[in-house]
Write a structure and sequence with these properties.
The structure holds two protein chains of two kinds.
Chain A lengths: L1 H34 L5 H40 L6 H39 L2 H7 L4 H40 L3 H11 L2 H27 L4 H35 L2
Helix pairs in contact in A: 2-3, 2-5, 3-5, 3-6, 3-7, 3-8, 5-7, 7-8
Chain B lengths: L4 E10 L2 E11 L4 E6 L5 H8 L7 E6 L2 E2 L5 H8 L2 E4 L11 H12 L4 H14 L15 H13 L5 E5 L7 H18 L2 E5 L3 H7 L2 E6 L2 E6 L1 H6 L3 H17 L1
Parallel strand pairs in B: 3-8, 3-9, 6-7, 7-8
Antiparallel strand pairs in B: 1-2, 1-4, 4-5, 9-10
The chains are: A mainly alpha, B alpha/beta.
Chain lengths: 262, 251
């Protein structure tokens, strides 16, 4: 029994590392593809608009609720320590540095990575990708590079939007409980947030966007076994993208603190 | 005369399973070659090896006298521009309208003006008798219409060779005849050569100049369709008798 469990875990571990190495090679092709003409600007723009519109409603709710709930949860504790005036500081730092970028990226992964996985997977199993290749068009460049680029560019924009809505939600909670003036709240937020807080938070979302696009494209592009394979590509994209976002976030936070701590 | 395409001793295996074993054949300019064989005998694999979707284990493929194997991607793509491929499922791009599907290879591989492109799209749609479908999405088309649009997308780049992968599978007898007649017209009007993988005797009767049969990963016959039908071989007799019975039942 124990041997069997070890064997299964070994197989899963091997599969995981195979996926990571395959994904790395697949993603590295992006850098060559993005630099070499022809440039598919129209496709990138189309995907950015599509992805933005597709994700906007859910991230709007997310942003507003993060700020609202975080404030509601933190307020009683800060009141206990007589530090209620630090509420805008705490909310803005938490949102801008960590919660906004990571939660937006996770929601984006759930919404977009699965969609890309399913779309490209379906194109793979119905031979549309093969059709593109035999018509002398590079399907990697047309389908994958454009999607990864669109994800990489749209996620930071969505994150800034989510951060803003979270601060609005935070203010609403503060106003309802203590009636704090909006000017005071805004001044506190602006006074608190520095270059060091904003830039790393936004910069890492470029990496998260890249991960979402690359993982979804990798899983979909290599889908096999018909419709079952499409389903697998879609769900496994979300799992892998979310896992990588969390792992990379951990690394980036450590790197940022080490290199850039004031 | 140098054949348009020549395949020499082509072999391909997947793991331990040999799919093609030293297959050799050639197609001349303006000729239609029909490739028969049971399901899973490697007919589609052969077509995919020709266009570089699969890499053969051994053998040579020459197109216009030049080897297609081991070419850098840009040179392979130059050859691909002269070779059309009609997939069994037509493989139309779901997210694009019929017009966009037809324009896709033109925009990316040729420098036509908008008006030239529009004229080409209209011309091929006229050839497949589907002018009204220009702004439809693939999901709005029937199986036969998809095959016709797939064919239109294949011929819009004016290839020298078309590879048909079961072009009439799943179609009713009338549409089968229409598609087959259309393929024949293309051969005569545009002087396009073809390799047609099919199980369909009706289609083969209309289009074949020559026929070949693949069995157990080897080519076991090459000759005219009449010679093939009259061949005293148990497998061939069984193969074609079942086709005839199915054909009669459909009728």
């Amino acid at each position: 029994m124990k041997k069997k469990i070890i064997k299964i875990n070994k197989a899963k571990l091997t599969l995981f590392f195979e996926t990571i190495s395959g994904l790395s090679v697949f993603s590295l092709r992006f850098f060559k593809g993005v630099l070499v003409p022809p440039y598919e600007f129209g496709e990138v723009k189309k995907h950015m608009i599509e992805l933005g519109i597709k994700t906007l409603p859910i991230v709007s709710i997310l942003g507003f609720i993060i700020g609202l709930v975080l404030t509601m949860q933190s307020q009683p504790i800060l009141v206990k320590f007589g530090a209620e005036s630090f509420l805008p500081t705490m909310v803005s730092l938490s949102v801008v540095r960590e919660l906004g970028p990571v939660l937006t990226a996770l929601i984006f992964a759930g919404r977009v990575s699965s969609g890309i996985g399913a779309e490209l997977g379906s194109m793979r199993v119905t031979e549309q990708i093969d059709a593109m290749e035999v018509s002398a068009v590079n399907p990697y460049k047309y389908l994958v590079v454009t999607r990864i680029l669109a994800c990489t560019m749209i996620l930071p924009i969505l994150t800034i939007y989510v951060d803003f809505l979270a601060l609005v939600g935070g203010y609403l909670a503060v106003y309802l409980s203590s009636g704090m003036n909006i000017t005071l709240y805004t001044n506190e937020v602006v006074r608190t947030l520095e270059f060091y807080d904003i830039i790393p938070g936004i910069a890492k979302t470029f990496v998260f966007g890249f991960i979402v696009g690359a993982v979804g494209s990798y899983k979909g592009y290599n889908a096999e076994n018909g419709t079952v394979g499409v389903g697998y590509a879609s769900t496994s994209s979300v799992v892998l993208a979310s896992l990588l976002i969390l792992l990379v976030d951990m690394i980036l936070v450590k790197v940022t603190i080490t290199l850039w701590s004031p | 005369m140098v054949p348009l395409i020549e395949i020499k001793n082509l072999s391909k295996s997947f793991g331990d399973m040999s799919v093609l074993d030293k297959v050799s054949l050639s197609v001349n300019d303006g000729e239609n070659l029909v490739l028969f064989g049971q399901s899973g005998t490697g007919k589609s694999v052969l077509l995919k090896c020709i266009v570089g979707l699969l890499e053969p284990d051994e053998g040579e493929i020459y197109f216009e006298g030049k080897s297609l194997l081991g070419l850098p991607i840009n040179e392979l793509n130059e050859a691909r521009k002269k070779i059309g491929f009609l997939f069994q499922s037509a493989a139309l791009y779901d997210s694009m309208s019929v017009r966009e599907n037809l324009e896709f290879p033109l925009i990316r591989n040729f420098n036509f003006s908008d008006s030239e492109r529009e004229a080409k799209v209209k011309k091929v749609l006229e050839q497949v008798s589907l002018e009204d479908a220009i702004d439809k999405m693939p999901s709005e088309l029937s199986g036969g219409m998809k095959k016709r649009i797939g064919l239109a997308r294949t011929i819009i780049t004016e290839p020298k060779l078309i590879l048909y992968d079961e072009p009439t599978t799943g179609l009713d007898p009338i549409t089968t005849k229409e598609i087959s007649t259309l393929m024949n017209q293309l051969q005569h009007t545009l002087k396009i050569s073809s390799i047609i993988v099919t199980h369909d005797l009706v289609c083969a009767t209309i289009v074949a100049d020559r026929a070949t049969v693949l069995k157990d990963s080897k080519l076991i016959f090459e000759g005219s369709l009449d010679e093939l039908k009259s061949k005293d071989d148990k497998f061939l007799k069984n193969f074609f008798s079942s086709e005839v019975v199915e054909d009669q039942m459909e009728k």
